[in-house]
Write a structure and sequence with these properties.
Blueprint lengths: L29 H5 L3 H15 L10 E3 L2 E3 L2
Length: 72
């Protein structure tokens, strides 16, 4: 769950493969914790939700894990 400023309010389940603290000052900003690659997908999905008012679901987003594409 996030607020209007993209601050994370609530975690559900294990998020360590997708979200991690960014270096520097502590922040729960979704885009900072998502990092490169996932942040673009999140921005696009949230933009769609804001404009349409509909839910969005992405079934497959390849992520780099240890410099390899992770599809788990």
């Amino acid at each position: 769950m996030i607020d209007a400023a993209m601050g994370i309010l609530y975690f559900r389940g294990d998020t360590h493969l997708y979200l991690k603290p960014a270096p520097g000052r502590a922040s729960l900003n979704l885009f900072k914790m998502a990092g490169a690659g996932l942040d673009l997908e999140l921005r696009a999905a949230l933009s769609f939700v804001r404009k349409s008012g509909q839910r969005v679901k992405k079934d497959f987003i390849p992520l780099l894990k240890f410099q390899k594409v992770n599809t788990d």
